[in-house]
Write a structure and sequence with these properties.
Blueprint lengths: L20 H19 L8 E5 L3 E2 L11 E2 L4 E5 L31 H12 L5 H4 L18
Antiparallel strand pairs: 1-4, 2-3
Amino acid sequence: MACIDLGGWDTHVAQGGAEGLMARLLAELGQGLAAFYEDLQPLMNNMTVLVMLEFGRRVQENGGLGTDHGHGNMMTVLGGGINGNRVFASWPGLDAAQQVGPGDLAITTDYRDALGEIIRKRLNNPRLDNIFPGYTVTETGVAVVRAPG
């Protein structure tokens, strides 16, 4: 198991759209994941890569042309043992009535559900009660059992 931190996502000001700070960060992440995948292609059946964020973003732009911290965000998973090409969530929508509080996306899946499933199925570790004390994991369907080898 390894963890890599890609900083710079605290973009409260001047995020930009198709060009700008956020677009550059997303391109860097995407290019890094693509290069990692290409370089390790022969081993990817035995690897699972998970990208998750520390916090979400508000729906509306703030006065500084950025967005403030919010609730809902996303996780991306690639590699072997993943039920790919799917979204594992229910989309609440962007209408104000579908948001939580003033401008936050609703959280529809607890991150521990996806992580717990990957830990159990891909790492063959059933002791989720030790990893997430007091929380019962509800599997999402994102992972399949560990690939042989």
